[in-house]
Amino acid sequence: MNRRIARLILLTLLVTLLTAACQIVLPPATEETQTTVTLVADGTTQTLDVNPNYTVNDVLRLLDLSLGPLDRINPPGYSRIEDGMTITIVRVREETVVTQEVVPFERRTVPNEGLPEGETQLLQAGANGLAEVTYRVTYEDGVEAGRSEVRRVLLETPQDEVIMVGRQSELPTVTVNGTLAYIYNGNAWVMRENSANRRPLTLDGGLDGRVFELSADGGRLLYTRTADAAPEEGEAGPAPFNSLWAVLDTRAEESQPVPLGLDNILFAAWVPGTERTILYSTAEPRESFPGWQANNDLWRGEVTDDGQVVNQVQLVEPWSGGVYGWYGTAYAIAPDGVTLAWAQPDAVGLLLPTYGEEDEEGDGEAEGEPVEPPPDDSTQLPTGYERQTLLAFAPWNAYDFVWVPNPVWSPDGTLLLTLVHGEPLGNEAPEDSPAFPLVALPRDASYSARLVEQAGMWAEPSFSPVAESEQVAYLQSIRPLESVSGRYQLVIMDRDGSNRRILYPAADQPGLAPQPYTWSPDGRQIALVNPGPEGALMLIDTATGLAQQVTEGQTSTPRWAP
After folding, report:
1. What is the distance between the alpha carbons of residues 140 and 71, in angstroms, rounded to a whole number?
2. How confident is the model at residue 120 (pLDDT cuts 50, 70, 90)?
3. Separation CA 432–CA 424 (nearest Å)
4. From the centroid of its chain, how far is CA 210?
5. Each residue's pLDDT tens digit, 236-252
6. How far is it, in rounded angstroms, from Cα 260 to Cα 277?
7. How far apart are CA 167 and CA 113, in angstroms?
8. Phi, psi for residue 221 in degrees, rounded to 5
9. Nearest by Cα to 299 from 317, 274, 321
């Protein structure tokens, strides 16, 4: 035998010995070495004698048992067997269940000072709604162990039960000139002749305050409320964020609110000089801040007796709206009902009417070149608008909100008041300037005059409705360079900025929160919400500053008309 063959034989012997060493052969179980375990699975319990070196998984393989993806085993499969151990298998499965469920109606009470104290009156009967609910149901060993809601679709909206409850106010009765409307506890209320003569115009709540506008004669109310609708089956995207409603006769107690069939409204107002013509602007709902994407458009329509909006015409095509244009454009209709002022985060301007042929097909597009209004027909409504910029400025840096000024017209329609974002006062960036001047602009844009250099971000200027008075009101920031979150005082001055005086509150009282306010038709009072947390509505005498409380609280957004 040569050396090569000897080495080969030696190598073969070494491999054989190593292989044998790596194979651990467990000794067969005997009565002395067997371990007893109990297995609970699939509704049965059995006792087994198994090798003590087994794991739980070995026992399952011995019995040819398999686990589903959701099944649970205790102890875990890698655990080594111990004498007396109980192995439990829980069979788990899930399934989707779709069911219809009743949505109970809610009961609400509405206080009314017109009823005797404690007396109740049913205003609206309650009705249950219906929802289609999808659940993910979990079963353990065939028994339901839990369920979680996956989806809910409202099929029928519940109708709240509304009960009017009499409550006598201890507040003194104050004379009210014209019609004073306001939002109280999520509903529209109206007050006439005196503060004790008040009643609700809506009962179902949900007014969002985005649109809350009386007609020029006080006879009609236009408002938005949070939308109840959910996306239709198969529709993508978020639900509408609000809907437009109207009360077509605020003087008639039997008049009921009517939905106008328009959703996602950012601006809406009655057109002066018309019976039921409205202008409105729309948006698309979004799940991200602020809840919409503005279209920066403008539409006109007429409201019928049954709440339909007909003869709709698109007057301004949708567009991006410039810097922060996704937030939207503010509009103000001139007293002539034709010209509009507009404002965006970085500019203020006018929408000048154009006149062309009416669209006979009703698709909102006017044909032909814009022309001047016919001299023999001053009542013809525009078919479109041309945009004119009066002032441009740096937008406020939108850290967590977007600031847009609200221009207002003088009663004769010749002058605009508006806030603008002022120039930097130091080394800050233009977008971070704390200055917000109050500016007057004539309709012909021949000049601009700063009436107040540092009024504050939320100054909300407004003209007295009496043209002869020449008075202007605005909210003056107590700390003008910290006006974003500061407090304000109501100030009266002349149109040229002279004779400025603080009207309310006094210097030793808490300042006002930023808010909308309104003049009485005769210019003798201003309605606003008091500086306290309760939110009571106050009437302020414009000559003396005397303040009279007319509501208990939870009040906002006053509007006043003859």
Report:
1. 9
2. confident
3. 7
4. 9
5. 668 899 999 999 999 99
6. 12
7. 5
8. -125, 135
9. 317
Reading the block at residue 286, the tokens are 């979004």
* CA–CA distance, 166 with 528 (Å, rounded to integer): 25
Residue 446, both tokens:
């021949």
Read off φ and ψ for residue 352, nearest 5 degrees.
-95, 130
Paired tokens of 134: 């999808």
Contact 226, 260 (CB under 8 A): no
Asked whether 342 and 319 are in contact (CB, 8 A), the reply is no
What are the backbone dihedrals phi and psi of residue 376, each rounded to the nearest 5 degrees, phi first? -95, 5
Between the CA atoms of 397, 399, 401 and 403, what dihedral angle is there, to the nearest 10 degrees? -10
How much of the chain is in helix, strand and coil states, percent to nearest 5?
5, 45, 50
Angle at 348 between CA 346 and CA 353, to 5 degrees: 135
Reduce the DSSP state of residue 11 to 3 states and report it.
helix
Give me the amino acid identity at 504.
Answer: Y
Closest CA to 182 of 145, 213, 217: 213
The position carrying tokens 């500053």 is 545
- Residue-wise pLDDT for 15-73, tens only, equals 454 444 444 333 444 455 688 999 999 989 999 998 988 999 999 998 889 999 999 99
User: CA angle 502-504-506, nearest 5°?
Assistant: 85
Residue type, 244: L
Backbone angles phi, psi at 57, to 5 degrees: -60, -35
